[in-house]
Design goal:
CATH topology of the largest domain in chain B: Rossmann fold
CATH superfamily of chain A: HUPs
Low-confidence stretches of chain A: none
Structural class of chain A: alpha/beta
Number of domains of chain B: 2
Number of strands of chain A: 13
Distance between the termini of chain B: 63 Å
Strand content of chain A: 25-35%
CATH class of chain A: Alpha Beta
Helix content of chain A: 25-40%
Largest sheet of chain B: 7 strands, parallel
Number of helices of chain A: 7
Shape of chain A: globular
Oligomer: heterodimer
Mean pLDDT of chain A: 92
Order of helices and strands of chain B: EEEHEHEHEHEEEEEEHEEHEHEHEEH
Strand content of chain B: 25-35%
Low-confidence stretches of chain B: none
Largest interface: A-B, 81 and 96 residues
CATH topology of chain A: Rossmann fold
CATH class of the largest domain in chain B: Alpha Beta
Strand order of the largest sheet of chain B: 7-11-6-1-4-5-12
CATH architecture of chain A: 3-Layer(aba) Sandwich
Shape of chain B: globular
Radius of gyration of chain B: 23 Å
Number of helices of chain B: 9
Mean pLDDT of chain B: 94
Largest sheet of chain A: 9 strands, mixed
Order of helices and strands of chain A: EEEHEHEHEHEEEEHHEEEH
Chain lengths: 293, 346
């Protein structure tokens, strides 16, 4: 028995390594100062997919992302690590989407991919930390969900059942759920395996149409006949039959009223160098005032 | 109709602290709006559960008591919330930003097409102006009164965003435990209790996920309630670097916390993370060691009584809110704190 697996991936600014230049003097985010990375927990999800593929030979892994044309980078990264094919949903009207419009768009793309047994994605993306898109996709596709998954313990394709260990507040639980379903994978799950050198050679020139100049596209046309895998599927809103009222800004119930770069009200503070005398005095003061005991 | 709702999370028969905190906040929002506060209690064997929530000023308790509703699974709880909301049309719904709230909230918001904001650190009521298309397709300014301002650090905690959902109801938000304060309004507060027929709200076909096994461990530490917190950041350098913080904490009878960067780097367990996406603490003393102080971290500790910042970077943002700034490396300063505490406390 083989499985049809969809993995959701997002390219995100690396908010974990924010330097002092991450904000402009005007208080807006300096995107150029933040490298774009594969959302970490989506890599944990890819690893779970790769393990299923090893367990059920003949399974296929389709990686789906939505974003700017540049987000094809995460598809290539997934292909290097063992995914079979990728889809990039990119279109101007999709911009400005909140989680609900994003989950609608992705659910339409998943319907277009068609047959699926399991949809895996990271629990949340580090640029928003909302953890909303996975469950919202599940709801839109009429599927159940297992969130915060740490490990797929077993999967029975005939009985269409999966057993998953998941994180809960203060502990763990093991649940049994029916296929197909959405599973969002926690960062505590197994890390993703590295790139495979052969696959890197095979896929390093794979692109979506929007990444090619007209000259490159012309030169690539004859190559694609022999190596169709060098074309990563690119879809726009029309390709996935998206309702214009449910995508982008129009499909987003939430509005950003204001964004502020917070300036903390400076307290009157005492600055010291950390010399023995100063620390000794500080500790005595804190003890005398019974602040520490 | 148009009331404020809180989804109460229940472990066994006990309503979670985060839900009681949200009831306190929900009561205030309801007062500002001049509406009632209602809550949902869903689980098994919930006789008398209303006694836990009414003192927080709840006007109406919706109890859903059935076999299958505990332990929590996604579909049945989504079904009962969605079907109840279709009848009650709340204007606001608050949930804990817990594993359960973050599993349930998005599913409900998707089913109702309503906006949901995760991990809010403040909730306020205010007005909002937005340009919308009128019947003739022209843009015109529309004024929305009494909107829920959902305020949260965003973008990795580097900015603070205020979110509103003017056109869709309910306005949904999740909030982490410890962010809002829990306060009993009146131990004898009188509210209505409605025990719903669960089968009317949850079709049998929704019970699709079976919980085979469940382990809840007692928390290994009491970070949330600690009087003194010693917290380390990325500047601690390594897991071993944190050992000296545990040493200092042991001396001071403190708990050890960490910034997100230190947790992401694997220096300490995730359950010690302080900040918007971790624990919120209000200790008497907060000793920040090698923590730069992103908004998302400060959101979780700014109410500390006295803040001591140890940082080799004199321009670290956290220094602006600190009472004592020690410009020095943690490797030098922390052992001195231990040494002089030992010397002076005897």
């Amino acid at each position: 028995m083989s499985l049809k697996i969809v993995v959701l991936a997002k390219q995100v600014p690396d908010t974990r390594n924010v330097g002092p230049d991450a904000m402009t003097p005007e208080g807006t985010v300096n995107r150029a100062a933040l490298p774009a990375v594969f959302n970490p927990e989506d890599l944990n999800a890819l690893e779970q997919a790769l393990r299923l593929k090893e367990q059920f030979p003949g399974s296929t892994i389709s990686v789906l992302t939505m974003g700017l044309p540049k987000s094809a980078e995460v598809i290539r990264e997934a292909l290097y690590r063992g995914a079979d094919q990728g889809y990039v949903v990119t279109d101007r009207p999709l911009g400005g989407a909140d989680t609900l419009a994003t989950s609608y768009t992705l659910s339409q793309a998943i319907k277009k991919i068609g047959d699926y047994d399991i949809i895996l994605g990271g629990r949340q993306a580090i640029d928003g930390d909302t953890a909303q898109v996975g469950p919202q996709i599940a709801e839109k596709l009429g599927l159940t969900q297992v969130t915060y998954a740490e490990e797929i313990l077993s999967l029975d394709p005939e009985k269409k059942k999966i057993v998953v260990k998941r994180h809960i507040d203060g502990g763990v639980e093991t649940v049994e759920a029916p296929l197909p379903l959405v599973v969002t994978v926690n960062g505590s799950a197994a890390p993703c395996r590295p790139r495979n050198a052969k696959r890197l050679m095979k896929y390093k020139n794979a692109t979506i149409a929007a990444e090619r100049t007209p000259e490159q596209a012309e030169a690539l046309a004859p190559v694609l006949e022999k190596k169709p895998y060098l074309n990563i599927t690119q879809w726009g809103a029309a390709d996935i039959d998206a309702d214009p009222a449910q995508i982008g800004k129009a499909g987003s119930p939430t509005n950003v009223k204001a964004v502020q770069n917070i300036v903390f009200k400076a307290k009157e503070s005492r600055t010291m160098t950390g010399s023995d005398d100063e620390i000794d005095t500080l500790i005595q003061e804190l003890l005398n005032e019974k602040i520490i005991g | 109709m148009n009331n404020v709702f809180v989804y109460c999370e229940i472990e066994g028969q006990t309503v979670a602290d985060v839900s009681l905190e949200l009831l306190t906040k929900g009561r205030k929002l309801a007062n500002t709006l001049g509406v009632q506060l209602e809550c949902i209690c869903a689980g098994s064997k919930l006789d008398g559960v209303e006694k836990q929530v009414l003192p927080f000023g709840v006007d109406k308790v919706h109890v859903f008591d059935a076999e299958g509703l505990f332990p929590y699974t996604s579909n049945p709880h989504t079904a009962l919330v969605v079907n109840l909301f279709n009848e009650e049309k709340p204007q606001i719904c608050l949930l804990g930003a817990t594993v359960i709230g973050r599993d349930l909230g998005p599913r409900v918001s998707s089913a109702l097409f309503s906006g949901l904001t995760a991990d809010c650190t403040e909730l306020e009521i205010g007005d909002f102006d937005m340009n919308v298309k009128n019947e003739n397709g022209e843009m015109e300014k529309k004024h929305y009164v009494n909107q829920l301002y959902q305020i949260r650090p965003a973008f990795g905690g580097n900015i603070v965003a205020t979110i509103v959902n003017p056109e869709h109801r309910p306005q949904m938000a999740t909030v982490r435990e410890g962010v809002m304060k829990k306060e009993v309004l009146d131990p004898n507060y009188k509210g209505e209790v409605i025990r719903h027929d669960v089968a009317k709200y949850v079709p049998e076909t929704e019970y699709v996920v079976k919980v085979l096994d469940r382990h809840i461990e007692k928390a290994k530490h009491n970070l949330k309630g600690a009087a003194i917190v010693v917290a380390g950041g990325y500047g601690m350098g390594s897991k071993e670097g944190f050992d000296m913080l545990f040493d200092l904490a042991k001396e001071l009878h403190a708990e050890v916390g960490a910034s997100r960067a230190a947790v992401d780097a694997g220096f300490v367990d995730h359950d010690r993370q302080i900040g918007q996406t971790g624990v919120t603490v209000r200790p008497k003393v907060y000793i920040a060691c090698g923590i730069s102080g992103q908004i998302q971290h400060i959101a979780g500790m700014q109410d500390a009584g006295i803040i001591i910042s140890i940082n080799s970077d004199p321009n670290a943002p956290i220094n602006t809110i600190a009472d004592y700034v020690i410009n020095g490396t943690v490797e030098e300063v922390v052992p001195k704190l231990i040494k002089y505490y030992k010397k002076n406390s005897k």
